[in-house]
Automatic annotation (TrEMBL):
Coiled coil (UniProt feature): none
Pathway field: Aromatic compound metabolism; beta-ketoadipate pathway; 5-oxo-4,5-dihydro-2-furylacetate from catechol: step 3/3
Lineage: Bacteria, Bacillati, Actinomycetota, Actinomycetes, Propionibacteriales
The Muconolactone isomerase domain, residue ranges: 1-89
Record's keyword annotation contains Lipid metabolism: no
UniProt superkingdom: Bacteria
Subunit structure: Homodecamer.
Protein name, per record: Muconolactone Delta-isomerase
Gene: catC
Keywords, sorted A to Z: Aromatic hydrocarbons catabolism, Isomerase
Native organism: Nocardioides albidus
Spans traversing the lipid bilayer: none
Length: 91
């Protein structure tokens, strides 16, 4: 099942810088692991924002929820999920 996911990150300015650095590093490692497994297929930065648009290919809604809620930055994100299907005009 394919999903487009937009993540907007808003880390509080008063978060301890060491906690921020450690959380962002864990987020990157988590993202890399899921890209290697094939579930996190693509990620793009939205120009000018601390936001991304990603494509996930997962077995179920429950699996996507598990992945998203496990993001180290999850407490600091707004997430929008769009389920995808083949467009009738796609070649
Ligand atoms: O930077 C972001 O867009 C937030 C998050 C998503 C993957 C990652 O490494 O960080």
């Amino acid at each position: 099942m394919l999903f487009a996911v937009r993540m907007d990150v808003d880390i509080p300015r008063d978060l301890d810088p060491a906690v921020r650095e450690e959380t962002v590093a864990r987020e990157k490692a988590y993202c890399h692991e899921l890209q290697r497994s094939g579930e996190w297929k693509r990620i793009w930065r939205i120009v000018g924002l601390y936001s991304n648009i990603s494509i996930f290919d997962v077995e179920s809604n429950a699996r996507l929820h598990e992945i998203l809620s496990g993001l180290p930055l999850f407490p600091f994100m707004r997430i929008e999920v769009s389920p995808l299907t083949t467009h009738p005009s796609a070649l």
